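Hi R.,

Here's the chain you asked about this morning:
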Amino acid sequence: MSTPSQSMSPIVLLVSLCIAQILAMAGFANFAVLLNDFGVLWDLSSTQAGWISGIYFAGYVAAVPILVGLTDAIDARRIYLFGVAAGVVSSVGFGLFADGFASAMGFRFLAGISLAGTYMPGLQILNDRLSESHRQRALPWYLSVFSLGTAASFYATGLFSAHFDWQTVFLLAGGVQAVCLLLIIALIGPKPPDGSVKVDRHPLDFRPVFRNRPALAYIWAYTGHTYELFAYRAWIVAFLLFAASASDSVISRESVSGFAALLILLGMPASLIGAHIALRRERRQTISVVMVLSILAGSLLGFTSALPFEYVLVLAGLYSIFIMRDSAAITGCVVAAARQRERHRADAREDRNKPTPAPPERQVPQPPRPAPSATRVSVPSRPPRAGPPSPPLQATCGAGEPAGGHQSANGRAKIIRPQAARR
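And here is the predicted structure, written out as C-alpha cells:
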C-alpha cells in the first residue's frame, strides 16, 4: 500500500512542503516586530533586547547539527513534526507565560529549535522522496520560500499587533503552526530509511564534514551568509523605525512591518536568480562577487539613517537582495561537494569489494583430453636443402604436457620432430 507522499506528484509534494514551511515560520518575526513594545513593557535594556532576539538563532545553531544529522538514520518527517510541535509550544507558551527577560529567553530559544527542526529537515523530505532530476529543480524553490515565510511573519505580526494585544499575536502564531502540524500528518506519509544504503558512520559523527575541504569551505561561506541574514531580519523593523524618526517621517509600526516584509520578499526572486546564474557560470566566482557586494551594502546601510526615509528603503532593499542572492547557490555547492565525496567513498568500497583473482603462479593448467588421432600442425617453410624430403611433422602430447610438444627450460613449447623410419 503506497503512502500519500509516494503517490503524490513532485509538484504537489513541493507545493505542500512550501506551504507547510510558511505556516511553520508564523512565529519567526513576532518578537522582532514587537521589540520596542517589549522594551517599554519589561524595561529591557538594548543588550537584553538583543539577547532575546539573538537567542532564537542560538537555538537554531545549537539544534540544527543534531536534528539534521539524525535525518540520516530516521525519517525526516518525524524530525519535521517534532520541529513544528516545538514551535507550537514556544508560541503558545510565550503568549501565556512570558513575563520578563528570562522567560522570554527560554521560549525564544525553543522557537529557534523549531526552525532547526523544520527548514533543513523539510529539504531532506524532498531529497528522500524525489528523483535526482526533480530534486535539482525543487531545491531552489524550497529554499527561496524561507524568504516568503519570513515576509509573511513580519506582515502578519504587524497587522495583528495593530488590532490585538501581544499575547494574542503569539497565540495566533501558535494556532497557525498547529495547522502546519496537521498538514504534514495528512499529506506527507512516512518513509523509513533505505535499508539497502549502508551508513558506515554515526549520524552525529561530524568528522567526515571536516575532512571534506570543498564542502567545509562552502559551509563557512554559508555561516557568514546566515549571520548577516539573521541579523538583518532581527533588527530591520527597529532600524526602519529609528530611521523614520531620525528623518522626521511619520509612519506607523504596521506600515514599517509591511515595508520590512516587502524588503525580505525581494530575497525570494534574488535567490532563484542567483542559483540560475551560478549554474550557468563558475560558482565560486559568482558567490564571491555577490558576497563582496553584500558586505559593501551592509556597511553603508548603518550610516544612512539620517538620510530621507525613501533612500534608506532603497539601500535596505538592495542589501536584502545581495544577502539572498547567494543563498541557494551556496547550498547547492555544499550538497554537490558532499555527494562528490560520497561517490568517491562508494567507488572505493566497490573496488575493495571486487573479487581478487588468484596469482598467476598458482593457476596450474589442466592437461587436455587426449586427442583421438594425431594432430597435424603446419610450420613455416624453410629453404630447400639437399637430401630426401622430411616426413610430415606430428605433434605428440605426453602426460601432463600441453598439445604441441615438450616444455623447454625457459617455459616455451619445443616441437619434437620424429626421426625418419628406417627402411
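One quick note: Strands lie at 375-376, 394-395, 406-407, 413-414.

Cheers,
M.
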